[in-house]
Design a protein that fits this description.
The protein has 165 residues and is mostly beta strands. The chain has a domain of 114 residues. The protein has one helix and eight strands, in the order αββββββββ. It has an eight-stranded antiparallel sheet with strand order 1-2-3-6-5-4-7-8, with no helix packed on it. Strand 4 and strand 5 form a beta hairpin. It is globular and about 35 Å long.
């Protein structure tokens, strides 16, 4: 019993030393690095459809959020690293979580764009409807989904100049 406790204490101390020593490489995550650690962007602040971005991965994907208040409909476009080129992904749905009162979760379904080379099973456009989208406001939230087996999630925030009410 004493040996087990001593071994566990030694293991804990080793782990603590590794954590304190650190590592000079930043981990790859879903765009959640501290602001100082993020690399400089060489793309516009708005997407080709005029909406704000959420970044997925290490800028592997840019997810553009747009809203049509009259239709009470949101459209999310999946773009590549350049934030301009549509990039179709193979997934059945995305989740749009809006920071509203109350919080709203909207399922976004694929609507392939033939003119962008999307094919059945792959889409660069996802659409969802909800009553809250009819409200004229600057939305912010999170878009999440899976590409293959890799989960992604990223935050976006509309600015007053991003669209006209």
């Amino acid at each position: 019993m004493i040996w087990k406790t001593a071994r566990m204490a030694t293991l804990g101390l080793c782990v603590l030393m590794l954590v304190v020593a650190g590592c000079d490489k930043a981990p790859k995550d879903s765009g959640k690095l501290a602001p100082a650690a993020k690399k400089e962007h060489d793309h516009p602040d708005k997407g080709p459809h005029g909406g704000p971005f959420a970044e997925w991965g290490d800028e592997e994907y840019h997810v553009e959020f747009t809203v049509d208040h009259d239709k009470k409909e949101a459209t999310v476009y999946i773009l590549g690293p350049d934030a301009k080129t549509h990039k179709a992904i193979d997934t059945r749905e995305l989740i749009l979580a809006l920071k509203t009162e109350p919080l709203e979760k909207i399922i976004m379904k694929p609507v392939p764009q033939a003119d962008q080379g999307d094919k059945d099973g792959n889409s660069s456009r996802f659409v969802g409807t909800h009553e809250v989208l009819g409200k004229k406001m600057e939305f912010e939230g999170t878009v999440s989904g899976k590409v293959g087996k890799t989960p992604y999630s990223g935050d976006f925030k509309e600015k007053a100049e991003a669209h006209k009410h």
